[in-house]
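From the pipeline queue, job 12 of 40. The input is one protein chain; the requested action is below.

Action: predict structure.
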Amino acid sequence: MAENGAESRRRDVLLERAGRLFAARGFRGVSVHEIGAAAGISGPGIYRHFASKEALLGAVLVSISERLLEGGRLRRAAASSPADALTALVAFHADFALDHPELITVQDREFAHLPDDDRRRVRQLQRAYVEIWVEALRASAPELTPDAARAAVLATFGLLNSTPHSASGVDLDRPELAALLRRVALGALHAAAR
């Protein structure tokens, strides 16, 4: 059964509020009643949208991975050159990490609590996202082996995904921090090709 617009919006609000709560207090530290209250519904009302709290976590993490993959595909498709593709991918991921640090935190910390099917789906989406980057990097630096390019991409993700932990201790405004992250990430990718 397809969701109507109001149901779809309610589901999106649940995903967003649950993501924030899971990031702040951990999956086990948040009750369905708290998630419901944050979304403006009763705790049991969550079960109209998700079979369990674990299913809600799975939807949060699958949604994050789908957003990253779709964003990566769009940036790669719009790029006029391999270098432009890398620049666009870095900018997209840096912006995502800065704008949604709670989602990066949940992705990093709560993966172990996923049901098996969701864990497989998240890994599949993550691998596809990594491969977009690997293809863009290898198109810019064809001398890199696929494994070397993949290692460089994963290291760059580590750098960008540390933002929720490292950005809070610096006195830079959002544009300055975004520009710095982009330069450092691109520098790391270009260094891999030397």
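Job complete. The radius of gyration is 18 Å.
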